[in-house]
């Protein structure tokens, strides 16, 4: 029996090169995964084909395209994101409060027009690929990353967004500053038995959930596993045992 409380928190990153592989992942894992995440790689390659496939399976779908443009463009893009069926999408918080408000406005207009439930709109604060050094030397910003992340999360909340994408390292501070209702979706998740790959700030599924993650993103720990179903079952077990 699938534990629905766990399932709803699990987001699978469909970071694969071809659509056949993506469809196979959706087919085999939809009983265990609450939300499938379509990122730029798959979206730029296959656009609506993969989106429609996920929708046919009745799974939630997260369009991870990190919108960042002038408010008017983001508003219109957000409208289309919802029109095409996303339950989740995200924008860059560095686009500013007005841009984030525009994303929400466009999304809600589409919800009204197409009779859909309001989506979860998340802000990306600082990309984890931006180091303190890059921030200082390339972006000429002397702030420390953690305080910037908190400020950007506050801006997202002010704009009426639902939460942020943040590493496990930032989880507790965000929940403390922004409140428990402010959603945090956490990538960089690695079960105790899997490889870290290129991720630097990793956490196990259990510890991220214990620290307050509302959603955890599973990627290569599942997609590169020999037996994907067995891997996901082990993750369920790990979360249950240690809860
Ligand atoms: O394979 P892995 O578990 O590392 O995949 C993590 C997923 O989360 C990828 O889709 C990646 O783009 C995304 N992500 C991330 N770090 C961020 C934001 C998103 O790893 N800060």
Structural class: alpha/beta
Q: Which fold name is given in CATH as the topology?
A: TIM Barrel
The CATH class designation is Alpha Beta
CATH architecture: Alpha-Beta Barrel
Low-confidence stretches: none
* CATH homologous superfamily annotation: Aldolase class I
List SSEs in N-to-C order.
HEHEHHEHEHEHHEHEHEHH
Round the Cα radius of gyration to an integer and report it. Answer: 17 Å
Helix content: 40-55%
Strand runs, count? 8
| Helical segment count | 12
Strand content: 15-25%
Q: Summarize model confidence as the mean pLDDT.
A: 94
- What's the shape? globular
Largest sheet: 8 strands, parallel, barrel
Cofactors and ligands:
cytidine-5'-monophosphate
Brief digest:
The protein is α/β, with parallel strands linked by helices. It is 49% helix and 16% strand.
Task: Describe the protein's topology.
Layout: H1 4-7, E1 10-13, H2 19-29, E2 35-39, H3 40-46, H4 48-56, E3 60-67, H5 71-83, E4 88-92, H6 97-114, E5 120-124, H7 132-137, H8 145-158, E6 163-165, H9 168-178, E7 183-186, H10 205-210, E8 215-218, H11 220-223, H12 228-242
Parallel strand pairs: 1-2, 1-8, 2-3, 3-4, 4-5, 5-6, 6-7, 7-8
Bound molecules: cytidine-5'-monophosphate.
């Amino acid at each position: 029996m699938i534990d629905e409380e766990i399932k709803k928190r699990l987001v699978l990153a469909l970071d694969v090169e071809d659509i056949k592989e993506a469809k196979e992942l959706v087919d085999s894992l939809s009983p265990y995964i609450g939300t499938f995440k379509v990122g730029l790689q798959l979206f730029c390659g296959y656009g609506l084909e993969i989106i429609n496939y996920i929708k046919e399976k009745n799974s939630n779908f997260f369009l991870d395209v990190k919108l960042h443009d002038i408010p008017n463009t983001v508003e219109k893009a957000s409208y289309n994101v919802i029109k095409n069926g996303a339950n989740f999408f995200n924008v860059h918080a560095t686009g500013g409060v007005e841009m984030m408000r525009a994303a929400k406005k466009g999304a809600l207009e589409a919800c009204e027009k197409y009779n859909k439930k309001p989506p979860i709109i998340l802000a990306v604060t600082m990309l984890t690929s931006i180091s303190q050094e890059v921030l200082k030397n390339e972006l000429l910003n002397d702030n420390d990353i953690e305080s910037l992340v908190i400020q950007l999360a506050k801006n997202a909340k002010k704009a009426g967004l639902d939460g942020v994408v943040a590493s496990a390292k930032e989880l507790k501070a965000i929940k403390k500053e922004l409140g428990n209702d402010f959603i945090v979706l956490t990538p960089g998740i690695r079960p105790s038995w899997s490889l870290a790959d290129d991720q630097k700030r990793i956490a196990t599924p259990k510890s991220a959930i214990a620290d307050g993650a509302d959603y955890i993103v599973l990627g290569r720990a599942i997609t590169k596993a020999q037996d994907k179903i067995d891997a996901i079952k082990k993750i369920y077990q790990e979360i249950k045992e240690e809860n």
